[in-house]
Structures are given as C-alpha cells and as structure tokens.
Amino acid sequence: MSDMSSPSLLRALRLGDLTSLGVNQLIGSGIFVLPATVAVLVGHAASPLVWVAAAAINALIILCFAEAAGRFRDAGGPYLYAKEAFGPFAGFQVAWMIWLTRVSTQAAVANAFVLYLSYFWTGVNGGFERIAVLTTIIVSLAIINFRGIRYGSWVVNFFTIGKLIPLTVFIFLGFSHIDWELFKGFSELKWSGFGQAILLLMFAFGGFELVSLPAGEARSPRRDVPRALLTTLTIAFIYYVATQLVTVGTLPGLSESSTPLADAAAGFLGPLAGMLIAVGALISITGTNAGTMLAGPRVTYALGERGQLPSLFSHIHSRFCTPDFSIFVYAVVSLLLALTGTFVQMAAMSAVARLLVYVITCSAVPVLRQRQCGTRGENIFQLPGGRIIPLLAVVASAAVILAADLVSLLAGGVALLLGTGIYFYRRLVFAG
What we know:
By secondary structure, the chain is mainly α. It has helices at residues 15-26, 30-42, 47-69, 78-86, 88-117, 127-146, 149-175, 194-205, 221-250, 260-269, 271-295, 297-305, 324-340, 343-371, 388-402, 406-430.
C-alpha cells in the first residue's frame, strides 16, 4: 500500500467514457465473424434466436454486476466483489481468471486483426509480417495507456464511434433488402448445436466486466458504473440482433461465408460496400484491443495494492499516474500468447475463464447485499426480486460452462489450479 505522498490513480473517467469502454468490448470481433458460425450450429433461419437467448443470459449477469459495482469505489471490479463476499482466496482466483481472460482476449483479437488485414494485404498471415503487425498493435496500445488514462479513454471513444458508424449503415440499408423468405425455416432449430452456439456468443457478449475494472479512475463510480453496464447491454443487444437479422435475410449462403457481413454488404450494395465493412471490422477489432489494454492491467494493479501480488504491480508512474509495471507485464504476456497461439485457442480459453468469474460474482451479490458493504444509507442500484436474478444468472452460467468441449474445460481447470498455486506460494514466501 502506498502512503499519502505517493502518486495515485487519476479519477478522470466519466459515464460516457465507461459506456464507450463497455460498448467497445461487447461489439468487437464476434459480430463480424460469428453470424456464420452460429448459423452452421443452429440453422440459418433460427440463428437470430440464439443471439436473443445469449443476450438474455448476459442481461441476468450484467444486472448482478451493476448492483455489485454500485457498492465500491476502487479499481478491481469482480475481484473486490469476490474478496469482500468470500475472502481473499476467492478474490484472488477471480482476479486471476479475469487477467487470463483479458490477456487471452488481447491475443485472440490481435490475431483476428491479422486475419482481416489479409483481406487487403496478402501474405500478412505468416512469417515476419505477422510478427511485425502483432508487435506493433500491442506495443502501440501499451504506450498509449502508459501515457495516461485520458489518452487511453480517448482512443477507446474514437474506435467505439468508428465501429458503430459502418455497422449502423449496414443495418439501416440492409433492412430494406431483407428477403423474409429466408426465415421460413425458423422452426427448424438444431438443438444439438444450441449449447455450443451460446458458449461462442458468451465470447462475443463478454467484456462488459471491463467497465468495473477502472472504477478507481472513474469520477463517480458508484453511480456511473451501474449505469454504464446497463446502457452497454442495451446498445449491444440492438446491434447484435439487428446485424444477425440483416445478415441472415440478405446472404443465402451465410453458413459458407468466412466474412459474413462483408459478403452480405457486397451482395446488396456492391463490392465497395464489402470493402468498407471489412475496414469497419479492422476498426472494431482495434478498438477492442484498445479497451482491453486499458482495463486489463488494472487487475494486477488491484492485486498488488492489496498485497496478493508483489507491490511492484501496484506501482504508479510519478508523471503519468498509470500502473506502469502492470501495463508492461500485461503487454509482454499478451504479445507472447498472440505470437504462439491462434484466435480459436485464445477465444476458447477466454470464454471458460470468463464464465467462472460470472458464477462467483453473481453468487457474491446476495452476500454483499446482506452485509451492506460500504453503502449503508446510500441510494444504490439494487436488483428486484431478492435472490432470484443472481440464482438464475449462476445457473445459466454454469449450464453454458457444461456446454464447453473437454479441452476448454480442462484448460479452465488447469488455470484454477495454477491460480491456487500462485496464491499459496505468495502467502508462504512473502507472508510475514
């Protein structure tokens, strides 16, 4: 813990900044690649239903996060909620899984950028070109966030607006070209692929938890973080469902498309529109990377500040007021994963780790409410219906975890064991 003379985090983030961070994460690479994958798993016409179901599950989870977030002012998000409700070990495991989620997402989305860049630059998928692009992306974003939270939030806001413009044009122009005959097979839902489709969409909808991580740098965290979470879900739901409807209704060969939105736009507006959507995908992916780089290092900062990692992780730069060492470690690890892994591998790791965090966080809400953690006498957001929503959120998250393949489940188990080892090693070596 730093003393009063030490530099501290700068409270500069407004409601708009937090909302932009959330929207930027939820509307990332998934919206550009998953429409085709979901169509393959559950059927062409029925695929919008799966997006609605995934949104409903995430709504339950986000509502739990909104209540929990209203009880804290410090950085750390779900780590703080779990630690306060269930003790330091649970808090550390949640933080560890969040950090793994973030670095694996950073690596996955950086690789997705390379894949989309190959639409314009043939050969970028291999060799020195791939290494150079991945390194440039991650190092550049690390430097921007090292320079200050304001710079990081400006970049996130810029890319959030940049990604929403082409998607908005795609939706509005595409609706007039929808062939509703393509939805005749709506009742032919392939239930065998439903669970796997939901699991993939949890990756697409994931990232909203990042809104709570930089609470220590928000001006009014107890008021603005819950509002930002709820606004983020609303915006993401509209864009996801509308995009899937347009894609299904304008692209008969959706199941065979690797770039569904670009192919759909090219079909009803011409080749130039397809290229513009591909550019929009690159902007969207870059924005997701920027937001992840902003929020991810705050996890290890929170752990270092509370003595669960070496104090170096909580070091604040004297000039820029940013967690410089945490940013450095985060950038190095994410770059190594990006260079050695693939989009699919990293996305699978991210999805399972994220769901484990959701289960613990939603379970913590009734406990935090009972203890009135730090909010006695304050007007905070509180879920209606007692424990019903947290219970439904836990059950839904656990059910989605069980839909994962064996490799993903084993990866999640290994991650938990590794986190356990780090926690107890820290206690044995550094305690006292």
